[in-house]
Recover the amino acids of this structure.
């Protein structure tokens, strides 16, 4: 008996020693990757290239930091599990780079130039000159992507390394390494990253992070630019098609339509039939996406104009729409402090404007019983600071994203769902397939071609939008093609963990249900359109009740009269 007690004691001690270590190791494995991106640009500032890399990395982790090669210190590397170096041009790096990575034990990914100047981690390659390619392919599969003619860094890959992606000129036939792995580190030979050529790189990042994602394509269909003057008939017909196929979808709604000539505002109080269709859509499987408040700025038409970007000045919205201005530069000020005060004043106006529009949009939909679950900026245009403001109100963003504050046309999309650092916690459900453009030949086929490119990534998102005014027949053609895409899991925003936190309205989802909390009295009576609309509905309902009661009374009177006549006839007989 004594021996048994001793044995049990030894086993307990052993378990107490082992289990904590097992728990620690499991916790390490479960920890979200922490990524540090060191970049070298000509002005030392982030640009659209780094932000696109942010989109790709954000698929695997939301813990991402960016720092210039001029400013990085060894202490910045201490907590990083993965380190990316992005050299956009060939240059001498600070002397600290000779030993910066000597004690780093995580995974390093080098992109573009200067890989030979960041220690000995990339001795498995030898950068030489530049070569031109117009096709890239995964070496381990038949995944191939045609691209526009592009320079890459020509490298020699030494024995012991593994080539993951090759590049070539289709007519030349010579293969050049594009992505190479060696000693657990990776090199990518492009000095730019964007959606036109980074799809295979996006796929290879699954190996970099060693995260297995299911080979299934999430997808969504978005019905675009639904405002109070939209014809409800084709929208209802399209909604019926989607309901019949049991496909969840999104509707991008603009709460206010403004006539660009007269300035007259139309609300859903002016379109009771359309509102009825939208509320049924929300009930049947569609999810509402707030697509701005008026989708216009200055004298532009709702649905055509911008709202969160001053396209005439190609800048964020810093001044009222009726005020002409010229943006000043730092050289126009006598001190840096004065310049920073000027910038802060501009950003203060942008915040006030943006918050007002967001809250007005949420309130306007809520007063009619429509509850947005995500946001889409008109024409996908919004500044980097705008995204930061928006992240305080929405958890989920839909569409493409603007990557530069210098030019609104510098925008792009991710091949998969992502949470990049520049969206400040928002989850991006990117749009990847495009839409049917009126008058464009083979528009549907072009969308399917885009889908084929996205499917090169194992969990690429297949997402498209359609304008209901084009009619139900055109949508049926698109839907028939979408039906042919294999392994698509259609996204239902109600089934995701989404939230909206407006000033007056709070919305979130639980198990497919929309949970909302707001002061109905304050929201509905913020303007007179909604009270008059509900009053009209009540009057119409009361009138129908009176008609029914009156009709019933007439019927009773007729029946009573006939029975009385019949009885009198019997008495007389």
């Amino acid at each position: 008996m004594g021996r048994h007690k001793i044995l049990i004691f030894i086993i307990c001690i052993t378990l107490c020693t082992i289990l904590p270590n097992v728990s620690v190791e499991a916790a390490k494995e479960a920890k979200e990757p922490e990524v540090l991106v060191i970049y070298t640009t000509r002005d030392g500032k982030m640009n659209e290239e780094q932000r696109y890399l942010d989109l790709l990395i954000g698929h695997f982790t939301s813990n991402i930091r960016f720092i210039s090669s001029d400013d990085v210190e060894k202490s910045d590397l201490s907590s990083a599990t993965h380190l990316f170096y992005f050299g956009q041009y060939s240059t001498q790096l600070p002397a600290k780079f000779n030993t910066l990575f000597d004690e780093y034990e995580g995974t390093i990914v080098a992109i573009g130039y200067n890989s030979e100047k960041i220690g000995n981690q990339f001795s498995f390659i030898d950068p030489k000159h530049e070569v031109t390619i117009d096709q890239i392919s995964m070496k381990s599969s038949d995944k191939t992507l045609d691209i526009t003619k592009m320079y890459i860094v020509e490298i020699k890959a030494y024995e012991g390394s593994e080539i993951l992606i090759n590049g070539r000129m289709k007519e030349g036939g010579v293969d050049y390494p594009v992505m190479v792995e060696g000693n657990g580190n990776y090199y990518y030979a492009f000095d730019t990253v964007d959606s036109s050529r980074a799809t295979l790189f996006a796929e290879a990042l699954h190996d970099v992070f060693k995260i297995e994602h299911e080979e299934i394509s999430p997808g969504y269909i978005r019905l675009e630019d639904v405002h109070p003057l939209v014809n409800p008939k084709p929208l209802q017909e399209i909604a019926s098609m989607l309901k019949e196929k049991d496909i969840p979808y999104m509707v991008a709604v603009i709460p206010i339509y403004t006539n660009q000539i007269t300035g007259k505002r139309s609300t859903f109080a002016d379109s009771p039939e359309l509102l009825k269709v939208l509320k049924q859509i929300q009930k049947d499987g569609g999810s509402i996406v707030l697509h701005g408040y008026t989708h216009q700025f200055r004298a532009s038409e709702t649905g055509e104009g911008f709202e969160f970007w001053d396209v005439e000045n190609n800048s964020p919205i810093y001044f009222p729409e009726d005020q002409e201005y010229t943006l000043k530069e730092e050289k126009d000020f006598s001190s840096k402090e004065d310049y920073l005060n000027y910038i802060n004043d501009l950003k203060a106006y942008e915040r006030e404007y943006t918050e007002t529009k967001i809250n007005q949009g949420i309130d306007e939909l809520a007063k009619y019983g429509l509850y947005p679950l995500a946001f889409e900026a008109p024409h996908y245009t919004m500044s980097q600071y705008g995204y930061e403001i928006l992240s305080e109100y929405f958890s989920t963003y839909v569409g493409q994203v603007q990557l530069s504050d210098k030019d609104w046309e510098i925008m792009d999309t991710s091949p998969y769902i992502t949470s990049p650092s520049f969206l400040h916690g928002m989850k991006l459900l990117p749009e990847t397939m495009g839409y049917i453009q009126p008058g464009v030949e083979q528009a549907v086929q072009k969308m399917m071609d885009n889908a084929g490119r996205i499917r090169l990534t194992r969990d690429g998102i297949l997402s498209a939008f359609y304008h209901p005014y084009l009619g139900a027949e055109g949508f049926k053609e698109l839907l028939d093609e979408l039906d042919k895409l294999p392994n698509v899991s259609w996204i239902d925003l109600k089934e995701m963990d989404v939230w909206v936190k407006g000033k007056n309205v709070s919305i979130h989802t639980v198990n497919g249900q929309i949970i909302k909390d707001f002061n109905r009295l304050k929201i509905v009576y913020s303007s007179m359109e909604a009270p008059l609309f509900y009053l009209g509905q009540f009057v119409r309902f009361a009138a129908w009740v009176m008609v029914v009661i009156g009709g019933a009374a007439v019927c009773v009177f007729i029946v009573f009269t006939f029975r009385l006549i019949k009885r009198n006839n019997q008495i007389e007989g």
About this structure: Residues 529-572 form the longest helix (44 residues). The chain is about 30% helix and 25% strand.
